């Protein structure tokens, strides 16, 4: 246990130690002064005697005791009686451990430590790199520790290096402006002094910044000197055999790879698969050098405004002030040539008025920043007329129908359908009054009239000239009648073709007997096909032997519906017994087998008196159908799309999507590669079968529903008729070159029909040989338009 000493004993011991230390330092300083080659270094060392120590650090009493009072920040070293016998060397080490001469060694200062030369003088080195020794000897101690002190460190003699008074920034700026060598001066924060660089130093720094060697005499491309003598050398430098380790795989590498594999499997090492998302936000008005990565075709550099000059100053010099004559001359200039700013002079800054357009310009600038799309747009002044497609003149596209030449009157109701004979000499028409008439084209004479007794939906003439047959759709019946226009041989052939035996009772094994029946028509002298629903459309095949009929309701017959409801009700009454449930499942499977094939579209063969269903399941309500003019392809249009089927392969080839509200009719180009579709919203779509399932052109021509569309057989013409009492004639030329798109040009709008009960032109057909057009209207009139 240490016993604390009294203050008098402690002061005596400290005074003795200080006197011994001062003696040693004086001897070392004298020895260094004798051996030093530079006489100027003597001024950095001063011998401190007892008098100066007493004057600077404190006073010593007459009895030889030093009057030292510990400061608030110092710790008083308390030792026991046993510590009095310690060696002087230990005491010297305790005092010399701190440059300030304090005895506790923890960095606190003792009064009188400023004048102690407790550090040993370091001899100068002979190395050229240490020619100038640093003044500050604190080593790697941070200078922040001295920011609240009056000194910045200690010199070689152990004295404190006082901080110099720093000039304020304005005085230092003025001094550097007057000094021509100020750019060479740098401030040494470590030694608290300004150092002036020599020319050699600046050259050395410049070469380092340029990436060159520091010394100008250094040659990085000096020629290689081969020091080895290769003359008479028969063996290489080392003739030792290849070591075995170069041919054996490294065991250490295999172990390291195995450790990595195990770390991957156990999940100790994980890869961040997701790359770090960089923010897309950047400063638009930043320097262009920071946006080099974003520069590209769409990069728009931010506008750089010209920095203000003397003329923008509030108190410019007199040479920038305009005279009254110059101001008047500027007023006479055009507004775009006038200068935007006229310099004005104000004596004080507070007398400058506010900018009158500051609010409006800042608001406009905010709008620019908010609404600017930041995309480069090339604006070119183009005449709108040049943007119109270059279409040929209508005179070059003649002939086409444009004038009403003849009217065929005789029907008492709306004429729903009109058709032309293959030679072009006769036409036939059907009306809602239940009559079918045959007309002579050139004279308008009515040759023959049939009274069907029901509203006629459609009439179609056989495409073969040797078979002048007429197919009529009225109600649930389809009539195939002989017009009697051919020769005697043709009439005999037609009578034999239309000969049908009296139908017998239908066989249960016949699938078609339940929904179609062939029979003779004794009233009109032809063939009658009885259907189970109303037939709305009929079309002949190009060979004249096949006929397609369309019924827009694909539902079961009333008998099957009645049986289905009866079985279902009986099953509910008797309960779900096994036998009844078995019969119910068998009947449902039978109904599903019927639904697999569409019963809305039927194909009839006239020569064999056969009827067959198409082996396709339709998606939607069918509207119209058509045969391909060349190949065995069948078109069926529903209300939303047009489906193209291959009759030989029995599969769906293509699905055309017009994208209209409801499809009303279709027509096939004579080449078979193009299709036009009319809709209930007045749009006409042109499809190119070789391009896409989307329409090539969509024409919004009519204001009301389009009822029919038609192609001419030999001329590049097509037409459409609508309930707005108009018929549009258009030029549609299809090129043999597949790289050239079809040419579509509107030609004429044909008017003349009157509206009846909201209906207009119900049907339109071209003449097979002449550029003539027949239109059937709801006003009971058929019109012939010629060129």
From TrEMBL:
Residues 146-401 form the BOP1 N-terminal domain. Keywords: Nucleus, Repeat, Ribosome biogenesis, rRNA processing, WD repeat. Residues 1-10 have a biased composition (Basic residues). It is found in: Nucleus, Nucleolus; Nucleus, Nucleoplasm. Residues 1-149 are annotated as: Disordered. GO terms for molecular function: ribonucleoprotein complex binding. One of its GO terms (cellular component) is nucleolus. Required for maturation of ribosomal RNAs and formation of the large ribosomal subunit. This is Ribosome biogenesis protein BOP1 homolog.
